[in-house]
Design a protein that fits this description.
19-stranded parallel sheet; about 700 residues; rod-shaped; 48-stranded parallel sheet; alpha/beta
Length: about 700
């Protein structure tokens, strides 16, 4: 390199391209002059204004200066671009209002600040494995061609604020590892515009801000890691978004973001260690116009308040370790929370589900702390079917919730308190608690728009059924289907039948009646066959007896026996049944009917006493008016009119006396039967007396067992 004075080197650099051509100044001489100025020039000499440089080739060069004062390019042009592959810049470099036709910075190193302000870069930028040891500032820069900073390392604060990337921008596996967090923005892309693909796959960030960014094409942060707070608030994603398996170690915000195409957060971890935000992950007021996928993601606390999900929202197998807020969220498409796990408070208050919602196999097991229940669905609107199959709740509230279609809690388990006060959207709404386990809670029917509840094969504990409407308790049980239902599965948590005595007594203790919606195609797990109804009343009787509800236990026993008779009759009528089975069940049906009429299956002591009083009257009338076959020593009457005479009354009284003393087996002996049928009936009276006496004992024993 020819040794020149600083003035000569400065002159070469200030020549226009035409002047250099006239003087035969080569690009290599321009480079040498440039290096000379940087190495030995003072601060003023290292400021270049309005200069036009040929292709500046600095590959493998060590650019350093004794003073470490910055090299400033102000309003300069680099039509041939800058090549600095493997170069080592040991002096600050600043570009202000320049135009550069590309940067080749592969494996280059900048040991001091690199600042590029309001500059237009018209060619490709390649910074593969480049290193930026100090601040890197590209505020307001326009990148007209693709930018590749794959595997680059940004060791201090980095800014692309207000930058525009007109073509693909790739920072794949780049590292943004600034150590100054006073502004929480070691890497900042605020208000930047990515008009094409933005690739940050496997990148590593410290404190990061993408606030207000416009992403116009595909965006990928797949497997990226954010070790500090990150924000994407107010950003717009026009293309598809991929945050697959990203790890957010501290807080992150996507508040007010708009996702125009599919967004994927599958397997993403939101650890939220710093807790500088109210919630570790914020999606408040975010809008997802297409599908969003959070499958198998993990959150600490997360806020989706007022978020809008335009199509399918997939939260399958997601884990929420702390609070999850979906207050006021709108799910326009299907919402899928299959096997999601909520270990903290889950609040879906005032949310709206316009299509099917699925919570199948989800668990809500957070401790009740800030909310009255750890799962809240108050004032939620479910426009159509909801699937809560096999969900586990500790405490949950569905107050003011609107249900449309079938709300399926088949096999669900409520291990602590729950509260339901749901309203029906139309007349065909069912809450299906088939096989569900409900330990303790309150179900209240609202003033209007009652909901039907199916408790087929459910296990009920201390459940209170109420109605807000005055007098509604009179019909409330018509909206609850009890079929093969358990009522006392939990120690100390029995169903309180005494709270519904008024309705049951008024309705002849009909527990199984159910007001089905007209035209409903709802399918029950079990039909109301006599056998299933019998089993239902048997379980209700056992529960009422165990709880000390004597009246209810007795009435349920009567109902159980009546439906047992219907079961026997159904077998008798079944032509496919064997002859022996039909005869056996016919005998049981007759016996059952006799016990019902005579003593109400032991529950009607007054009825059997009435039978005692009435039974002797029938043969007494036959003795008095039946003619020769029924003649006794008391005599007979030839017509009813003789009863009006004293003699006729005496004969009638003697026959009554004979019938009663025979029935009571007293038998004074002064009157005896003479006719053949009189002798038969006298024997039958004694036989009936023994049977009815046994029924009295049977009734007393059965009543004592309740």
């Amino acid at each position: 390199m020819t040794q020149r004075t600083l003035d000569e080197s400065r002159t070469i650099l200030e020549l226009s391209p035409e002047e250099r051509e006239q003087r035969d100044v080569t690009a290599a001489e321009v480079r040498d002059a440039f290096l000379e100025i940087i190495e030995r020039g003072d601060q003023q000499a290292k400021v270049f204004e309005g200069c036009t440089f040929p292709e500046l080739v600095l590959d493998y060069q060590e650019i350093e200066s004794a003073t470490k004062r910055p090299v400033v390019f102000r309003d300069c042009a680099f039509p041939g671009g800058i090549r600095a592959a493997h170069a080592d810049f040991r002096v600050p470099i600043h570009f202000e209002d320049c135009t550069v036709t590309g940067f080749e910075l592969e494996r280059a190193r900048f040991e001091y600040d690199l600042a590029i302000h309001a500059t237009e870069i018209r060619g490709e930028v390649n910074g593969f494995e480049a290193r930026f040891d100090s601040d890197m500032d590209c505020t307001g820069v326009t990148f007209s061609e693709p930018v590749s900073m794959d595997e680059a390392t940004f060791s201090d604060d980095t800014s692309f604020d207000d930058a525009t990337f007109e073509q693909t921008a790739s920072f794949r596996a780049a590292t943004f590892a600034g150590i100054s967090n006073e502004l929480n923005d070691n890497a900042s892309f605020e208000r930047a515009s990515f008009e094409a693909t933005a690739n940050f796959q496997q990148a590593t960030f410290g404190f990061t801000s993408f606030e207000g960014v416009a992403f116009g094409g595909l965006v990928s942060f797949e497997e990226a890691q954010f070790d500090g707070n990150a924000t994407f608030a107010d950003s717009t994603f026009t293309g598809e978004v991929d945050f697959d398996e990203v790890r957010f170690v501290e807080d992150v915000s996507f508040s007010d973001c708009v996702f125009e195409q599919n967004a994927v957060f599958r397997g993403t971890m939101f650890e939220g260690g710093a807790r500088t935000l109210k919630d570790d992950a914020r999606f408040a007021d975010a809008t997802f116009h297409e599908d969003v996928n959070f499958r198998a993601a993990e959150f600490r606390s997360v806020n989706f308040e007022r978020a809008v999900f335009g199509k399918r929202a997939l939260f399958e197998e997601v884990r929420f370790d702390a609070d999850a807020d979906f207050i006021g969220a709108t799910f326009t498409g299907e919402a899928d929370f299959d096997e999601a796990r909520f270990d903290g408070d889950a609040d879906f208050s005032t949310a709206s589900f316009e299509r099917q919602a699925v919570f199948r196999g989800a668990t809500f097991e957070g401790e009740t702390q800030h909310l009255e229940q750890n799962a809240v669905f108050d004032e939620v609107h479910f426009a159509t079917d909801v699937d809560f199959d096999n969900v586990t709740f500790t405490s949950v509230g569905f107050c003011g919730t609107e249900f449309g279609g079938v709300i399926d809690f088949t096999g669900a388990e409520f291990t602590d308190e729950f509260e339901f006060m749901a309203e029906a959207v139309d007349d065909d709404n069912y809450v299906n608690f088939t096989d569900a386990v409900l330990k303790e809670g309150v179900i209240t029917q609202p003033a209007d728009h009652w909901v039907r509840y199916d408790f087929t094969q459910a296990s009920l504990g201390d459940i209170t059924l109420k109605a807000e409407r005055k007098g509604g308790h009179r019909e409330i049980l018509d909206y609850f289907r009890f079929c093969n239902t358990e009522f006392n599965e939990f120690d100390g948590y029995e169903f309180d039948f005494s709270a519904h005595t008024y309705y049951l007594d008024r309705n002849d203790w009909n527990l199984h009646a159910f007001d089905e919606a007209a035209g409903s195609d709802y399918e029950y797990a079990l039909e109301m066959t006599p056998e299933n109804i019998e089993t239902t009343y048997l379980k209700a009787k056992k529960a009422a007896s165990a709880g000390g509800y004597v009246k209810a236990a007795g009435e349920f026993r009567v109902q159980r026996q009546r439906y047992a008779r219907r079961k026997h009759i159904a077998i008798v009528r079944d032509k496919a049944a064997g002859t022996r089975a039909r005869l056996s069940n016919a005998s049981r049906a007759v016996e059952n009917y006799f016990l019902d009429v005579s003593c109400g299956y032991g529950m009607r002591l007054g009825r059997i006493l009435a039978v005692f009083l009435v039974t002797p009257l029938i043969p007494a009338v036959l003795y008095a008016f039946g003619g020769q076959p029924f003649r006794t020593d008391a005599g007979q009457l030839s017509s009813i009119w003789e009863v009006t005479t004293p003699a006729g009354q005496a004969i009638l009284f003697k026959n009554l006396h004979f019938s009663y003393i025979t029935f009571l087996t007293i038998g004074y002996g002064n009157i005896g039967p003479k006719g053949a049928l009189a002798r038969v009936f006298a024997g039958l009276e004694v036989y009936l007396s023994v049977i009815l006496g046994g029924l009295v004992l049977y009734a007393l024993i059965k009543r004592s067992e309740l």
